[in-house]
Amino acid sequence: MGYKNVSPEPYLTDTLQALWPLLNSRVIAECTFLIDEGAFLDNGVIFRNIELHTGPTITSLLTNSVRFAIFAATAGRNFEEMINSVKKEDDMLKIYLMDMIGTCIAEKAGERMEEFLEEEIGDMMHTNRFSPGYCGWLLTEQRKIFGLLGGSPCGISLSEVCLMTPIKSISGIIGIGENVSTKQYACQYCELETCYKKNTIKNKIFNNK
């Protein structure tokens, strides 16, 4: 939330503490993945005869992969119902906190999925997770991922514009191989020029010069 080494205000901490018991009793995060061999296109990957046009950036970060994992993970339907219920209370602080918590749960579900994946692939290495909507990979490609995973993985559905429900869900691809690398997520791989973080980093570089 940006506090870093600064302690949050007591009212914020109290609100969070009140949410934990309810979250712990109701939230069930889920994840799934599918592993198979694949081949590279100029700017993408062929996986089970489906062309995934991941774009030049993600395709380059998948270099040396000999297999791929298609995945989905979610904070779950129960969390979606909880945050919708909170929205009806019209408490903007609680809505903001729930939104942040949901993001964290979805990311942790993705991390747990990677742990299951590592058990499956043994000594093989794997790349980071890469998702449609980032680094030039069109969001509409989610339809292909969902098709490969059976249509509604972990109970996640897609809207006509390819947004996921529950909204706190992730999907994408991971490369697997003996010589792949897991690179630190960094702004140099992102193509969103309007992102404030990228502008901040540019300013830091400029000022340091």
Describe the overall structure.
- By secondary structure, this protein is an alpha+beta fold.
- It has a single domain (10-208), classed as NADH Oxidase (3-Layer(aba) Sandwich), CATH 3.40.109.
- The protein has helices at residues 10-26, 55-61, 77-88, 92-121, 142-148, 196-208; strands at 30-41, 44-47, 50-52, 67-74, 125-126, 157-158, 164-165, 169-177.
- Strand 6 (157-158) and strand 7 (164-165) form a beta hairpin.
- Helix 3 packs antiparallel against helix 4 (92-121).
- The protein starts with 9 loop residues before the first helix and ends with a helix.
- The model has no long low-confidence stretch (mean pLDDT 89).
Label the CATH architecture.
3-Layer(aba) Sandwich
Shape: elongated
The proportion of residues in beta strands is: 15-25%
Number of strands: 8
In short:
This protein has helices at 10-26, 55-61, 77-88, 92-121, 142-148, 196-208, and strands spanning 30-41, 44-47, 50-52, 67-74, 125-126, 157-158, 164-165, 169-177. The protein is an alpha+beta fold.
Give a quick set of tags describing it.
single chain, 209 residues, alpha+beta, NADH Oxidase, 6-stranded antiparallel beta sheet, two-stranded antiparallel ribbon, 6 helices
Topology of helices and strands:
Layout: H1 10-26, E1 30-41, E2 44-47, E3 50-52, H2 55-61, E4 67-74, H3 77-88, H4 92-121, E5 125-126, H5 142-148, E6 157-158, E7 164-165, E8 169-177, H6 196-208
Antiparallel strand pairs: 1-2, 1-4, 2-3, 4-8, 5-8, 6-7
Helix pairs in contact: 3-4
